[in-house]
Amino acid sequence: MARVSVIIPAYNEGSVVGDTISALKKLTYIDEIILVDDGSQDDTSAIARKMGAKVIKINHNSGKGNALNIGAKNAVGEVVALIDADLGSTADCAEKLIKPVMEGAADMTIAQITASKGSGGFGLVKGLAKYGVRHLTGVEMSSVLSGQRAMRRGVLQDVVPFAKGFGVEVDMTIKAIKKGYSIQEIPLDMKHRETGKDLRGFFHRGKQFKDILRVLVNLYMGGGQFCGGPL
Questions:
Q1: Fewest Cβ atoms nearer than 10 Å: which of 102, 181, 209, 221?
Q2: Residue in 185, 163, 181 with CA at minimum distance from that of residue 172
């Protein structure tokens, strides 16, 4: 059986990361859980370590992409899953992501999670991400922004280094499609904290939009031919 690594990027997730790791530990075929603590100021690292995860601590908040890059360098599995720290007890749904990759049914899987109606500004960000993927690759996907994924090691090696900031999912999706890898989107009942409609939430969505746009422009300027007209 293929060895499986799970990488969890985390920032100030002490209130829920224990439940997330506990849920993942129900999947007995997972060989290692690597939590990359991206400069947390709470007890995220201590809880993860107590739960048996391998913890890598970054001294300052460097962004999700960098945390994933560090995790990828340390993962040893033939199958590597990327899981958000705030999934809590629903993290065991990762089984439905990991199994198709282990069994050779897909090179990469992506969780299809329905966003709550309270996610202010998410539609605009998601629309940009879907547009970018469609026009750079010709492929229509619905869950481009989902951070819950599993992939073969060969795919991982072809999509790293991960993009900085919030463009990481769009970047890796486009790279994987352009390399010809098979991708499955799998509907899952995962639950995680949503960004709301308050001022902080809109600033967060603005940062997402900017990071995704930067990734799309960089890929286009780097030789990505748009399939549906100009950006």
A1: 221
A2: 163
Where are the chain's structural domains?
Answer: 4-117+146-196
Give the helix/strand (H/E) hosting 97: helix 95-102
What distance in Å separates the CA atoms of residue 121 and residue 220, rounded to the nearest whole number?
A: 25
Reading the block at residue 198, the tokens are 């308050």
Q: pTM (2 decimals)?
A: 0.90
Reduce the DSSP state of residue 186 to 3 states and report it: strand
Distance CA 135, CA 124 (A): 16
Nearest to 102 by CA among 172, 192, 31: 31
For 57, the token pair is 């601590």
- How, if at all, do strands 79-82 and 108-112 pair? unpaired
Strand, coil or helix: 18: helix
pLDDT in tens, 36-91: 999 999 999 999 999 999 999 999 999 999 999 999 999 999 999 999 999 999 99
Asked if 193 and 86 touch (Cβ cutoff 8 Å), the reply is: yes
**CATH match of 4-117+146-196 with 3.30.70.260:** no
SS3 36: strand
